[in-house]
Amino acid sequence: MPPRTVVIGVDSSTQSTKAAVTDTETGELLAVGRAPHVVTGEGGARETDPEVWWLALCDAVAAGLKESGLSPSSVVGIAVAGQQHGLVTLDRAGRPLRPALLWNDTRSAPQAAALVAELGGPEAWTARTGTVPVASMTATKWRWLRENDPSNAEATASVRLPHDFLTERLAGVAATDPGDASGTCWYSTATGAYDPDLLERLGLSVSTLPEVAATGGTRIGSLTESAAEALGLPAGIAVAAGTGDNMSAAVGLGLGGAGLLDHPVLSLGTSGTVFAASRTRPASTALSGFAGADGTYLPLACTLNCTLAVDKVASLLGLHRDDATPGGEAVLLPYLDGERTPDLPTSSGLLTGLRHDTTPQQLLGAAYEGAAFTVLRALDELLLACGLDPADPEVAGRPLRLIGGGAQGRTWVETVRRLSGRPLIVPGSGELVALGAAALAASAAGGGDPVAVAARWNEKSEDAELPAAERDTETWERIGSVLDRASEPLLGG
Predict the structure, then answer these.
(1) Could you tell me which of 432, 405, 402 has the C-alpha nearest to residue 420?
(2) Which residue in 11, 23, 177, 245 is the catalytic one?
């Protein structure tokens, strides 16, 4: 019997790094090492020193290997999936010049508005990049940096996304993939390459950017001697191009050209996202028209306020996160960090509908409802972007796959079930971003199409399937009415 081989899939998220030690043949998750990050900033600022990510990656890999009990010699490949959109600026020696601006840093909202206007409006951006710039996107952060920190912008020799930075540390090669690149707003999903006109507008040279590999599972190099020493792994193992966290979650679910297409997914984490893998290039200004990690497209809508915002409300009320009941007449839009969808980058939370008999448990339930409504509202737009009719009974009956930390929470699951009126599937495979990265690593190590790899692994997964519940249209319409009627002064947008 041949010796067991494993790959390591790395999920470098906003708050932490996870390293999933995964059996190459079966996809069995043997161990997960973890290490925290530090996020700094007040108001709209959210930053992290990229060196924190590298140290966390080293710690998480070491912890995962120790937990697995396996020899480092069993590892044949590694791939990184990272939080999207972050701006990493490096000097000529490859060292970070300043803390990275994270995806949820909203200071570049004015620059986003200016960029949209300069190109001729949202439709022009959708036609070129697939995505309209908002404060989350990397291009807006680069414009902000040039205007607000010109000395570091001038000194920048290389620009990277978070996962690019880590991949380069692993392989010594400047590489990215179409999926993560498509979140920059300087990569064109229409041409499959960096857009030279947009780069010129932004004052960026293509020479400062990583080369775009064909897929996230493409082998872009081998683990260098220095990286191998830092991680305690064998030098020379396969390093995949890697991708963004949302693209990796899609791979982990088996969504893509070699798996499920046009099936919606709702991810409940620090942010809330709804997405699907599709062969149809999305052209909606209401969505981010990303590329997938495997050559498909990944239309996606993302909110800034999800589990973290609801947990904050629970803390303010002195309640456990599951000590909630439906909100009744109360409506709470928990836009504590501004909001991306809808595009209200300077908004704050909004509470209305209080009565004498409103309970703390109802207020917490209203926070759940407001967060879930905000991301679910984009579902019909997502289906249209996939070329589907949301009113078609077959389409309306497709289950919604629920992932992320919130998918393990009873109140989150029931709130989504009640407001969506759809059957739900909660995948049995945990750590889907890391699992997707592991499939990319297996692909780079010679395992074939990463989506096919993940789909094969998932055959043994025990998914929880929940039937559709009667949709709570009264609550849905009440929240929608408040959001539609709230003026910019009320939301602070």
Answers:
(1) 402
(2) 245
What's the first-to-final CA gap in the chain, in angstroms? 62
Convert the pLDDT of each residue in 359-372 to its tens digit: 999 999 999 999 99
Q: How far apart are CA 483 and CA 429, in angstroms?
A: 35
Q: Left, alpha or beta for 391 (phi > 0: left; psi -120 to 50: alpha)?
A: alpha
487 has pLDDT over 80: no
- Contact by Cβ (8 Å): 283, 385: yes
- What average pLDDT score do residues 98-110 get? 96
Token couple for 278: 């599709």
SS (H, E, C) the chain: CCCCCEEEEEEECCCEEEEEEEECCCCCEEEEEEEECCCECCCCCCEECHHHHHHHHHHHHHHHHHHHCCCHHHEEEEEEEECCCCEEEECCCCCECCCEECCCCCCCHHHHHHHHHHHCCHHHHHHHHCCCCCCCCHHHHHHHHHHHCHHHHHHCCEEECHHHHHHHHHHCCCEECHHHHCCCCCEECCCCEECHHHHHHHCCCHHHCCEECCCCCCEEEECCHHHHHHHCCCCCCEEECCEEHHHHHHHHCCECCCCECCCCEEEECCCEEEECCECCCCCCCCCEEEECCCCCEEEEEEECCCHHHHHHHHHHHCCCCCCCCCCCCCEEECCECEECCCCECCCCCEEECCCCCCCHHHHHHHHHHHHHHHHHCCHHHHHHHCCCCCCCHHHHCCCEEEECHHHHCHHHHHHHHHHHCCCEEECCCCCHHHHHHHHHHHHHHHHCCHHHHHHHHHCCCCCEEECCCCCCHHHHHHHHHHHHHCCHHHHCC
pLDDT tens, residue by residue, 375-431 = 999 999 999 999 999 989 999 889 999 998 899 999 999 999 999 999 999 998 879
Q: How confident is the model at residue 1 (pLDDT cuts 50, 70, 90)?
A: low
Summarised one tens digit per residue, pLDDT across range 317-328 is 999 999 999 999
Determine contact, residues 9/81, Cβ cutoff 8 Å.
yes
pLDDT at 486: 83
Whether 83 contacts 166, CB under 8 Å: no
245 is catalytic: yes
